[in-house]
Amino acid sequence: AGTLHVVATPIGNLGDLSPRALEVLRAVDAICAEDTRHTRRLLAHFGIERPLLAVHEHNEGDIASKLVARLLAGESLALVSDAGTPLVSDPGFRFVRAAREAGIKVSPVPGPCAFVAALSVAGLASDRFVFEGFLPAKASARRERLASLAGESRTLVFYESSHRIEEALADCVAAFGSERPGVLARELTKLFETVLDGTLGEIRSAVEADENQRKGEFVLLVQGAGEDEDAKVAEGRRLYARLCEYLK
Ligand code: SAM
């Protein structure tokens, strides 16, 4: 049987595609990509011509068994997403699971990942952290998620897009308090890379004051609640929020 290579691609700077990623992408029979047009541009930049197969969240469940059949027949495949590490807030886990269940070797080609990059420059405690990915789009669900995290003592890590960054910051201030320290990492490895640090209140003001700070892609990191007082205050805040919901 062939191997399924799970290949990380750049989160902005094309120089971050590793030599081994290039080697694997050149060698496989086909490349499974979240968005084939997007990946075709990346491959064209490196002069790689390999057949592309669309594997995204809408067809992954249906197509996984066909892809596994190709792997079992001896083909080797690569899985990439639009940016960074596949499966990290990206499609792929169903395909990987199906391949593993069929006894296929699944091998990583590690590389860029936005939250790891952000954590590596944030200067927040990084021995223990919680990756929360994208917050729910609906305001009520988002607030509930944040309220449930208010007493969390590990560093919190969120993904956010430009559409919702202001709402997300406002909701974080409400859930964690404006004095809680945080870091907002924007456009990492790209031309307008910015890493803002300060209290959540300060970060929110900075983003509100400058529309350029609302553009692009974001990783928001929030320091965990202090083990003693912070956690109690957070728990009080959480209960208060629940009570307000209840009384509505
Ligand atoms: N698989 C990717 C990874 O390994 O990080 C994440 C894919 S997810 C669909 C896209 C989100 O990742 C963006 O909305 C943003 O929160 C974050 N992201 C991706 N590239 C980024 C960058 N260059 N700077 C900051 N955040 C980024």
Automatic annotation (TrEMBL):
GO CC field: cytoplasm
GO molecular function: rRNA (cytosine-2'-O-)-methyltransferase activity
Broadest EC class assigned to this enzyme: transferase
Boundaries of every Tetrapyrrole methylase domain copy: 3-203
Keyword terms: Cytoplasm, Methyltransferase, rRNA processing, S-adenosyl-L-methionine, Transferase
Subcellular location: Cytoplasm
PROSITE patterns associated with the record: RSMI
Enzyme Commission no: 2.1.1.198
Pfam families in the cross-refs: RsmI_C, TP_methylase
Catalysed transformations (reactions): cytidine(1402) in 16S rRNA + S-adenosyl-L-methionine = 2'-O-methylcytidine(1402) in 16S rRNA + S-adenosyl-L-homocysteine + H(+)
Entry function: Catalyzes the 2'-O-methylation of the ribose of cytidine 1402 (C1402) in 16S rRNA.
Family: Belongs to the methyltransferase superfamily. RsmI family.
Name of the protein: Ribosomal RNA small subunit methyltransferase I
Species: Pseudoluteimonas lycopersici
Gene expressing this chain: rsmI
